[in-house]
Hints:
By secondary structure, this protein is mainly alpha-helical. Helix content is about 75%, strand content about 0%.
Amino acid sequence: xxxxxxxxxxxxxxxxxxxxxxxxxxxxxxxxxxxxxxxxxxxxxxxxxxxxxxxxxxxxxxxxxxxxxxxxxxxxxxxxxxxxxxxxxxxxxxxxxxxxxxxxxxxxxxxxxxxxxxx
Length: 119
């Protein structure tokens, strides 16, 4: 994140990393089961965690929507499903509401910080 708490640099990094993994593992993904493809996508999912915090604090709806859209896009690429697949279907396949996940992550981090201050 930048000093202005924007996630552009992190998203650019995730794009490069996911594209690299996709190219390297494309032949595997073509023959893999749906579960195998999802497992490979799970290797880049943690890269999104750093930007989820912004969902809790950033008032910009555009940035939030861009992040959600980009996450769905990478998932579709790794699952090798159409770009036109319904957002609702993709969200169901992902199985996680990222706004709830962001809230949970922020809450856990605050709790850890408070416990650390006590010691």
